[in-house]
Amino acid sequence: MVVCYYMSSALCLAALFRASTADPGRLPVDPHIPHSEREHWELCNKCNLMRPKRSHHCSRCGHCVRRMDHHCPWINNCVGEDNHWLFLQLCLYTQVLSLFTLVLDFCQYYYFQPLTGMDQEKFTTRHELALLRVSAFMGMVMFGGMASLFYTQMTGVLSDTTTIEKMAQFSNDACGSKRSWQWALAEVCGTRWKLLWLLPLRVRQPLHASHLFRTHVIWKPL
Ligand SMILES: [Zn+2]
Ligand SMILES: [Zn+2]
């Protein structure tokens, strides 16, 4: 249990670090647009650059991001095509850690504390109880918040709709929800290996297959 706790802590920190520092899918100044995809590109009226459809201009970061989901103030970065998988991992590991907190608080309160037969009036015992309650409260708030966020994120991934598109009441029928959950997650994480979906320390390679159009930009060779 202790090993699992340290492992999920390390994975959570790695996901947090990578999600906040990774490039969310910023558009290059001079992208090479394949001829067959030209009709799927448009001009951003804020930064005056060409971008694939479903990109969004982030006013906080001041640039366009491919398939942008939202700008997350917690990681101080956009969540877009290239770091969405890291954001999902961060949500997942935060949930795991808050669950650990709740389980450990429960064990301490109902199992270990009665065993030691501590005096309830003692100063240290009173403070330990107060800390336990604060920790359990934080665990519940964190778990509830992260679980609902993870749920909305997953429904978005499975129906291929970003948070921005949901808010704009826009449903892209062409990209609809005809994909299986395995394919939807494989596309977001950039690999079909399910174990790799959980690892934050790797490089995402976009999958190109039976996609209607590719949103990933090919950099012009210098
Ligand atoms: Zn823009
Ligand atoms: Zn942003």
UniProtKB/TrEMBL annotation:
It comes from Pleuronectes platessa (European plaice). GO terms for biological process: protein targeting to membrane. Its EC number is 2.3.1.225. The chain crosses the membrane at residues 92-111, 131-151. It catalyses: L-cysteinyl-[protein] + hexadecanoyl-CoA = S-hexadecanoyl-L-cysteinyl-[protein] + CoA. The DHHC domain is required for palmitoyltransferase activity. It is found in: Membrane. Residues 40-168 form the Palmitoyltransferase DHHC domain. This is Palmitoyltransferase. GO terms for cellular component: endoplasmic reticulum; Golgi apparatus; membrane. It is an enzyme of class 2 (transferase). Keywords: Acyltransferase, Membrane, Signal, Transferase, Transmembrane, Transmembrane helix. GO terms for molecular function: protein-cysteine S-palmitoyltransferase activity. It is a multi-pass membrane protein. InterPro entries: Palmitoyltrfase_DHHC, PFA4/ZDH16/20/ERF2-like. Belongs to the DHHC palmitoyltransferase family. Residues 1-22 form the signal peptide.
